[in-house]
C-alpha cells in the first residue's frame, strides 16, 4: 500500500512556523530527560529541521548528537539553523539522510540515548517497518542505553468523527509571520480502522502583506498506535520497560494525552526474544 508522507515535509519553513508553539510544551521535557540520564552520545530519529535537538545542544551536557531523517528538505532546514550556531555547537552535530528502518551508523552500538519524539513513530506504517526500526535501534544502543518514544494517545472521539463521509474540515491554527504573511491551516481526516491509519489532508493558505495569496495541499498518513500495541512492540524487540509517562509534565501514564515510553537495552539481552512474566516468545 502506498503511503503519503513526503509532500507534507517539503515546506520546512512552514513546518517550523506551524510547530513553534509545540516547543514550549515538549522541549523542557527533553532537556530534563537529558539531565537525568546524562548521555554521552545521542541519536534523534526523524530529527526533521532540528526543532528539538538544537535546543538540547543549548542545555546541560556536552554529548555528541546525531540526527537522522529521510527528508532532504527538513535536513536542509536543520543545516541552515546550524549555520547560525557557534562553531562549538556545530562540531557536536552529525546529520544523516536515511530511513530509520535500515540505517547503519559508524557509532552503532555506542549510543546511550535514542529518541523518537513528537509522533514521528506514526510514519512506521507496516508491522515489518516497525520491527525493523526497533530492532535496528536496539542494535545501535550501547548496553544499558535507552530508547524513548513520544506519541499521542488515540483520541477515540476524533477518530470516530474521521469515519464520517464527507469528512469535517477543521481550522487548526492561524499563524503570523511578521511583515510577510498570515497563514491559515485546515485539515480534514479519514480513518481506516482496519489498518489503524489516519489519512490527513492539510490545506495551507497564505495571505501576504503585498496582497498576494497562496494555497497548497499536502497529504499525510499517520499510523495510530494504541498503548498495548506500542508496549508489545518494545517487548518483542528486546527492550525492558523502565517507565511510561502520560505527558511532558512527567505524570503517570493515563494522566495525560500522550504515551511517552522509556525502554532500556539491558547488557545481556538480544533482540530476538521478549519476556512477559513467565512467558517467552521467540520471533
Give a structural overview.
- With 283 residues, the protein is an alpha/beta fold.
- It folds into 2 domains: 6-154 and 226-282, Rossmann fold, CATH 3.40.50.150; 156-223, N-terminal domain of TfIIb (Single Sheet), CATH 2.20.25.
- It is 26% helix and 35% strand.
- The protein is built from 8 helices and 13 strands.
- The protein has helices at 12-18, 22-37, 53-57, 72-83, 87-90, 127-140, 156-161, 227-236; strands at residues 41-45, 64-69, 93-97, 111-116, 141-152, 169-177, 181-192, 197-208, 213-223, 240-245, 258-264, 273-276, 279-282.
- The strands form 3 sheets. The protein has a 7-stranded mixed sheet. It has a 4-stranded antiparallel sheet with strand order 6-7-8-9. Strands 12-13 form a two-stranded antiparallel sheet.
- Strand 6 and strand 7 form a beta hairpin.
- The longest helix has 16 residues, at 22-37.
- The radius of gyration is 19 Å and the shape is globular.
- Mean pLDDT is 92; it is low at 274-283.
Short description, anyone?
This protein is of the alpha/beta class and 283 residues long.
Q: How would the blueprint of this fold be written?
A:
Blueprint lengths: L11 H7 L3 H16 L3 E5 L7 H5 L6 E6 L2 H12 L3 H4 L2 E5 L13 E6 L10 H14 E12 L3 H6 L7 E9 L3 E12 L4 E12 L4 E11 L3 H10 L3 E6 L12 E7 L8 E4 L2 E4 L1
Parallel strand pairs: 1-2, 1-4, 2-3, 4-5
Antiparallel strand pairs: 5-11, 6-7, 7-8, 8-9, 10-11, 12-13
